[in-house]
Amino acid sequence: MKNLLFILCTVCLMSCGTSKTVRTSKKVIKGDWTLTNITYSKPGTYNVTLLNDASKECFENSTWSFIPNNNTGMYAINGIACDTGNRNFVFTINEVDEATGLYNFLLKPTNEKGKSETNQGFKLNLTALSETDMQWQQTVSVDGAPFVISMNFSKL
C-alpha cells in the first residue's frame, strides 16, 4: 500500500511540472535575437501595429533578449521615425502539441521592475525554434477571414 501511494504521489508531482520539450525550448530561446523580418499571409499593404506598440517597419531589426530562468525579457526598437527604446516583458511557453512542435507563447508587457501596468497580453504561436532561428505567428481577423502575421528571428 505504501509503495502504491508513493508511486501515485511521484506521478502527480511529475505531471505538474513543465514538460521536457518546453524546458528544452526555454534553453534554446535563452539569449539575444534580432527580429529580422515580418511577413503576412496575404499580399497587400497593411497598417499593422504589433503588440500595441509599433509598426512592422519599427519592429524589423529590433533586438530581443530572453531570460528563461525568470521568464522575462526585453526588446529594443531603434528604427528611424520610431518611438525608440527598451520595452520589458514577461513570457510563458505552453506546450500545445509535441508532435507538431507548436506552442502557445504568451508575451505580456511590463515596466522596468517587471510589473504589468495593464492586464494585456499577446498570444502567439511559437511555430519554429532552432539554435539559430525562431518564428512566431499571430492569427488575427481581417474582413472576417484569418490573417497570419509571421515574425522571423535570428539568434545573435
Report on this model:
It is a single chain. This protein is of the alpha+beta class. 19% of the residues lie in helices and 49% in strands. The chain contains three helices and ten strands. Strands 1-4-5-6-7-8-9-10 form an eight-stranded antiparallel beta barrel. Strands 2-3 form a two-stranded antiparallel ribbon. The termini are far apart. 14% of the residues are buried. The N terminus is likely disordered. This is Lipocalin.
For this structure, what is the CATH class? Answer: Mainly Beta
Strand count, sense and barrel status of the largest sheet are: 8 strands, antiparallel, barrel
Rounded mean pLDDT score: 82
Number of domains: 1
Helix content: 10-25%
| Total number of beta strands | 10
Q: Which ranges are low-confidence, i.e. pLDDT below 50, for 5 or more consecutive residues?
A: 1-21
Strand content: over 45%
End-to-end separation in angstroms reads 54 Å
Question: How are the strands of the biggest sheet laid out side by side?
Answer: 1-4-5-6-7-8-9-10
| Approximate shape | globular
Structural class: alpha+beta
Q: Determine Rg (CA atoms, Å).
A: 18 Å
The ordered H/E elements are HHEEEHEEEEEEE
